[in-house]
Amino acid sequence: MKKIFFAILTVFVSYQTVLTAQTADEIVQKHLAAIGGVDKLNSIKSMKMVGSIEIQPGMTAPITMQVINNRALRMDLSIMGMTMNQVVYDNSGWAVVPFNGNPNPEPLTQDQVKEMKKQTDLSGDLLNYKDKGSKIELIGSEDVEGTDTHKVKITEKDGTIGYKFFDKTNFYLIKETKILKLEDKETEVSILYSNFKKTETGFVFAYSMNNEMAGGPITWESFEVNPTIDEAIFKMPAKN
Amino acid sequence: MKTKLILIFAALGIAFSATQAQTKLNSSTIGMIEARCIGSAAMSGRITAVDANNKEPRIFYVGTAGGGIWKTTNAGVSFEPVFDKHCQSIGALAVDQNHPDVVWAGTGESNMRNSVSVGNGLYKSSDAGKNWVKVGLENSEHISKILIDPNNSDIVYVAVPGHLWGSNPDRGLYKTTDGGATWEKILYISETAGCSEVIMDPTNSNRLYASTWEFKRTPYSFNSGGKGSAIYKSEDAGKTWRKLSNGLPEGDFGRVALALAPSEPNNLLAIVESKKTGLYISADGGETWKNQSSSNNVCARPFYFSTIVVDPKDSKRVYRPAYTFSISKDGGYSFIEPQYFAGIHPDHHTLWINPANTSHLLLGTDGGLYQSLDKGNSWTFFWNLPVSQFYHVALDNKSPYNVYGGLQDNGSWKAPSQKAGGIKNGDWEGLYGGDGFWVQPDGEDPDVVYAESQGGSMGRINRKYNMSQSIQPKQGPGDEELRFNWNTPIVRSFTNPKVLYTGSQYLYKTMDKGITWIKISPDLTTNDKTKQKQEESGGLTVDNSSAENHCTIFTIADSPLDENIVWVGTDDGNLQYTTDGGKNWNNVTANYSTAGIPKGTWVSSIQPGRFNKSEVYVTFDNHAYGDMNTYVAKSSDFGKTWRMFKCTEFTGFAHKILEDLKNKDLLFLGTEMGCFMTIDGGETWVRMKNNIPEFALVRDLAIHPETNDLVIATHGRGIYIMDDISPLRSLTNDLMNKDFAFLPSRKTPVTNGRFGGGGGQGGEFVAPNYTDQAVFTYYLKDRLNSGDVRIEIYDENGMMLYDMAGTKRKGINKVYWGMRMKPPKVAETGATLDMTGFVSPLVNPGKYTVKLKVADKVYTDNIELIEDPNSPFTKEELALQRNTSKQMYELIDRFSYSAQQLVEMQKGLNSNLGEIKNTKDKKLLSEYNDKLESIRKTMVATKLGTAITGEKQMREKIAELYAEISMYQGRPTEYQLIRLKGFDDEIKKKAGEVNSTHDIYLEKVNKILVKNGKSPLKLLTMEKWKNETIKP
Fold this sequence. Notes:
The structure holds 2 protein chains of 2 kinds. Chain A is mainly beta.
């Protein structure tokens, strides 16, 4: 169960945008254009994603993620009819992990809230990265599952370091690595993205992602841009 | 669903193809065929450099002789290799203490022993070791010291001894003032003398001291010493230099170890190799010197032990790590050895002292890294640095097979290739001492092993009785004095398990385990007397360790096709063969040079053709003459004509060529800087990078005939096993142009895996096993960016047993199947997860159909699972277990159906309850629900709570029994069988209870619902339950 919990913590929104570059910035522009363009990405105010995660080979669990830009995120994952969820709302967060008989919400740590809160940024960490206080740097080329990529380092305002890998042929983000700090220990988490599809509204999303810590791949069935989300779902329920 | 799919039946290796540009083999084609390192970390390897982030000394870096750089952020509880894309031989490390994320690494160790590797320049990381950039000095080959100006991080000095195996101008002391962008040579002596040490006055960064060193090796000699060796001082940050000599010995110097006392920087110490080798000290910044101790450990092998360190706070406390670890409390006047070899590997090369806490020391030795917290009086070992330096590897035919090999300065060992719980340090069994090289398990007796130490001292070891007899051949009547190579071959015949070969200048054969050696050749070397003066070798300090023995046999290989064909290669370039078991010898030495290989080149390995007697592959190593080129060649006519293989990606001098056992076009090559393979008989080669350091020092290679594992012996990263390379055998240029292809894997026995072994403790190295699961292997021409890969497995009746996601990388993909059915579907009820939903029975051995869905295409193949040949169970026992777990699977299905039927009815009742106004009617609905609830509470655990409630109802008890029976392949116990029968009865009874409740209430309740305009409730049918069990 711990593993699943971790997986949820580290599921990043999969259309994160980018920067980088042949000169780093050039690569960013190409990437942003490739996945829908700056204007479109700026227009995202909320998002709902529905899909499934393979929690062990052959066993999938439905997963739903709902996000209000820079505000709130809720993830629900069901196994055998039991649903765990994890929520960040403004500056606090909570989770229900019912699998061992505890149906009550418990608060998240500040580290967890901080990490999840970053994922509420629906424009991604690359769009307007300068305004967000991040720095980017082209590290070089790297082979990712046989694909030649541009490897770009991003240093966020708070010092968090990540690496982005862009397919040189289409500028899609096919891999990213984040260095997460839990307590004093650094942990490197990588996610691979694939199954890129263009939606009717012109966004390119990765419908499949593989988070090495999640135990298996996540497949999204739908991405709904700017749905109406009732904020009530983010409020911590009372304990039983 | 199935009908929507385009079914393409692809026979093995024949798959859908599209016409596109030719796809060629490259490193990433090898894909998920990855290697795993099995260590050992118990016999670690030579540590050459250590530096720490002094503000946070839990973060430190370890440089090794042939295993790259390792970093810890937790004071050594765990280490990560951080230099795997670069040269693995490390000479120097330096952490910029003003910006501890900046780390400098000089490649090319400078402990100039015969087996030392070479580097390819200076590297810098700006992110604490995650990424490295080469910043120059590409042609230095050896770097011994990096010194950062503490007042200006852009100023860095680098001491470059330079080439060992020849004259060269790329040596001396280099300086950058722009952080490595440009370099200036600021102290240069000659093409034969470089700079071996540089130190700085911590109170005055313009004051530098440097020692220069003249040295050279050939294959048969070593010289340390000459006019170029000296100590210099600069007062202007290296612009001008002055030689220091007042009080130092007369005549030529050899290597000089240099240090100063940081707390009294005018106090200098120098171990000066000379006619009067000893420790010299100065109290006036080197202007005058006086002689101090010349004790054994101070003077020990100055070319190899060039370290002397003063405690940063106590100018009188001096450490001399060398053969052993000596401590002086009187500034070097006298030394003691508090731990003469007790618990610490001899031969020390680097010492780091924590400047804030000078009791805390890190010591690098020939056998790994140690830490002391009491100023060097006692030490603990780091058990987690797998940087062992193998020379050769051999395998036996046990299951799992064992790996045997000899290590630089760490003896000879064996370990299993697989072990329950992983292969740990303690699984390595020591066999023989000294430097280890060839180890051969006897072909007949599993307790007997042959091993050796340097210079051909060899023994036959009986592991059962823990005895060893020396079996080195002795000089016979009429023989010249025997000359054995430092690394003398001991080779077992391919074809005859009784036959063992070894060689001095003559070739010997034994058929009675070394009791009788038959000399089957004349002197096969050039017998050049000018190359046989090892007794004079060493220069100022004689160093005759057998390392310079020359004109000896170095490689022996008999034909896998004909016992009478034996090839022999020597260290002085002779290549000869016999076709009649040694009666006549044919010298083909003159022929290989016509293919471009220099005459007299060391013959490092020979691979007689496995498919054609007249074929032979040979690697040549000319590095000891300063030539680092990769020489590998093939002859198809018994050595008359040669074709040299070429590839722009080749790096490092060649150690080993290996022809695959089954595919004549599949070859593997190990060099000093990488592992390479070809699938087209040598036309094109690629570097193997899959979990192997890209520039690994690959000394030997072997393939196991049963498992098809490629075993890679590295000189600095231990043994790697690339499990089951059979998919590589079917890679061809044709196949690689297809979008998709199935690739064969070895047949998998149906097993539960290995039980036991325990896990490792923190700080211990534990090597992973290869999977026990069935492996589906397939090739994708490109990474699948659009669509997904799914795998479905069907039994012979077309029933789907399992489905799961596949991988989608370019090249070879692997997906693992635990050989189990999908777990039973479980009811969605209860306070905790139903553990039966995570457990499933193993399938039976047999053939299964695999459907691979790649985006919108479907490819079909078969996979064969076999009965485990090592299974201890009878057919009857296996059958009983299989039937019982299947019975349980069905029982759980029935149980879960009842439970789901019940909870769905409860859901229906609850959702209608609020809608019924009539009190009596409402009561009836409630009553029905309550009856069902009371039954539910006996079927599944329902208590909520944050603690483990421990509540066990029927479901939890069934889950326990189900797991017990499913997870053991043998006969279930009698009590398990009895309990199963009990559950069967209880479930029937429970189903009866549920049904009779429905009988009593359902019809009445439905009448009420209809009366209220609601739809009647329906019981979940078995059909609906089943249909949802297995998705089409």
